[in-house]
Amino acid sequence: MFNSKHDAAGIHAAARAVGGCAVYTSDKPGEHDFDLLRRLVFPDGSVPVALRPGRPTADCLFKDPTGYADPLASTSAPPNVAKPPADPTALKIWNTNRFGYVVAAFNLRGSAWDRRRRSYQTFEEEVSPVTAKITIGDIPAWAPTPAPGSAGVAGVAAAAQFESHFRHTDEVVVDSAADPAAAASAAELTHTLEPQLRRARRTSEGFGADSVAERVVVAYSHVSGDVKLMRASDEISVELGTRDYEVVTMAELTALTNPDSSAGVDVDVGAGASASASASANAHGVAGLSWAPIGLGNMLNSGGTVLSYKAAVAPSGGKTPPAPGSRAQASVGLMGGAGEFVGWASEAPVSVTIEFERPDASGRARAVAYSYDAESGLFKVLVDAPDRQTITITW
Fold it and tell me: What single DSSP character describes residue 362?
């Protein structure tokens, strides 16, 4: 539990967003920070929970992010007690969403659990800032694959198998005769997850999912509001002051143009459709039309609000206007909750429609207004109803 009015409530909320856990508060009646709670929980009580328990990134393992070099010593110990290390460490936690990942960084310096006093003790009044460096290598499935025969191959393969097992269920067994609806749902789930499973299997075999050098990931920072295209050599450097945090949603770019075909094809999302840099790259450094769904940007775990994702590739034959049915499209199913859908695209869409899942005719798709920032590549769509919805973007 945490208190939403506490000085450290932001850190606690971010920890719940990336922790893959339920959200509990211990607020007194009438004393709530609803602005903060609305970033965790929808009005109907549903929560965009990450799929697995949050886990620390490899670079902060076996380090003490509190800066307390000797956790067994009391703060009342003599002056020769080990002092906080000169190189402060941020705590970074990562988790998995259906179509991407989330990484959170925290500055936890200044206090630690004192085992002698059995309470938290403050040992650093002037808390030093911590610089957290976030990379796509923080995600085991995206970490660079060591060269064949090197000592790191076995570790990467084991990590990929671990992530494959815990991210999705490889097989769903349902008695179709006893429950036809459940069987159909299981078949749809298996079909939807197959691309990710194929990618994880290729990685566990040592070949890598896609070329690490070619993978391009959109990283959206929730506190700063910044967006960045990241490759294996890139990083996001965040300076965290006292009780500061940052939550970064990561989604891999999908290429929506197919220069080798004169007809549109469906994208096998997550398998072989990654955007990459090339000699013909556009202003954003990627070739052709590419995009990635981020989710409802008003939620700390925005990637957790994306329930389904389909895309159709269009040919890049330079037709003006494109032939009927040849436009690129992407459809994103979202959890029920009003807010602002955020996505990234290398080009501005020509139209956006939204369809709410209602039993009556009002659930039909309707065109909605959107904004697109050509410099950053971000486009935003206001979602003004708390129902589950499907947003369709056309280029």
Answer: G
3-state secondary structure of 1: coil
Residue 204's SS3 state is helix
360: its two tokens: 């009556």
Task: Round to whole Å and give the CA distance between 79 and 102.
Answer: 41
Specify the amino acid at residue 172: V
Rounded Cα–Cα distance for residues 392 and 384 (Å): 16
Q: Is the pLDDT assigned to residue 89 strictly greater than 70? A: yes
Which of 318, 343, 207, 209 minimizes the C-alpha distance to 268? 209
Write down the H helix ranges in the chain. 9-19, 34-37, 152-167, 180-204
SS3 assignment, position 103: strand
Q: State which H helix or E strand residue 220 sits in.
A: strand 217-221
Query: For residue range 142-164, what is the model confidence (pLDDT) as tens digits?
Result: 876 655 554 444 444 544 544 54
Q: Which of 359, 363, 367 is nearest to 392 (CA)?
A: 367
Kindly report the number of other CB atoms within 10 A of residue 237's CB atom.
8
* Long-range contacts, 262-267 (Cβ 8 Å, 24+): 262/315, 262/317, 263/315, 263/326, 264/312, 264/313, 264/314, 264/315, 264/325, 264/326, 264/327, 264/328, 265/312, 265/313, 266/310, 266/311, 266/312, 266/313, 267/310, 267/311, 267/312, 267/313
Stretch 272-277: mean pLDDT: 48
pTM for the complete prediction? 0.74
Contact 123, 108 (CB under 8 A): no
